Sequence to fold (175 residues):
Amino acid sequence: MADTEAIRQQVQSRAPFSTWLGVVFLFLLFGAIVLAVIGPAPRSDNYEKSRAEKRVEKLKALTDANAKQLTTYGWIDKKKGSVHLPIDRAMELTVTELSAKKPGPAYPIATPTPAAAGGAASPAPAAAPKASGTPAPAASPQSSAAPAPASPSPSASATPAGSPSPARGKTPSQP
Fold:
């Protein structure tokens, strides 16, 4: 029993002084490392002010370069013959070019297929007319459906009834 009592006292005894000294030394070492890393970093307002001034200078240079590009003539690629124009002149040329064009539909106009006699829809779609102008023959003589009339010419209705007129400046594809 004496051995178990001695072992119990050794296990429950306080840590020796050297352990405490080692822990304090590690904390001091950690603090010194932190100061060595953070110490050289700038901690004044001058650093942030100089960075802000550099950003303002870069933004001004970029704005000046963009303004020069938008207001002057110059070559983009002389071999290909591509140039840059002032934005006002480019808009004038575009408006002149677009006003010279005849407006047209932005998408093909689909005509609805006529309903068969008796109110029932025809089982097969109508065949498109041939280039010669003669209608396609019926599929079989027993077919009770009437032949589909020829589709109207595209010039009969250049724009859909619901589309805005070109005079208002919108095309059918614009909302």
Observations:
- Residues 143-147, 151-171 have pLDDT under 50 and may be disordered.
- Helices lie at 2-12, 17-38, 45-71, 87-100.
- Residues 46 and 52 are 10 Å apart (CA to CA).
- Residues 45-71 form the longest helix (27 residues).
